[in-house]
């Protein structure tokens, strides 16, 4: 593998998962055999347990487009795409200075930050597919 452009940007978990799939990564009980390294198979196996396993390029593009008015940083968008918050507490933990940033709209007008966080959560739930069920939830 040759590095074409070092440090050219951040990758979402979906992009890493998609890349590993294209290289032939699989969950293999006999160990990781073939074109990918054992470490890549471990990363692949981990990513299958994250929201990335249900995402598509289209859902990510739609999310990025629809949240433009919120003026999220690239790091904020990456956190949300990778971890798909499901509660207001998650949003406050993922988005830097969330309270201040969600208390004003794109024109600088004051808004109820709690309402804007709930609207943002609705956008996330509408656009980004749900996370896979946790293994213990599947066995109950």
Automatic annotation (TrEMBL):
GO cellular component terms given for this protein: RNA polymerase III complex
InterPro entries, per database record: RNA_pol_Rpb4/RPC9_core, Rpb4/RPC9, RPC9
Domain of life of the native organism: Eukaryota
GO biological process: transcription initiation at RNA polymerase III promoter
Name of one Pfam family that matches: RNA_pol_Rpb4
Domain RNA polymerase Rpb4/RPC9 core: 1-131
Name recorded for this polypeptide: RNA polymerase Rpb4/RPC9 core domain-containing protein
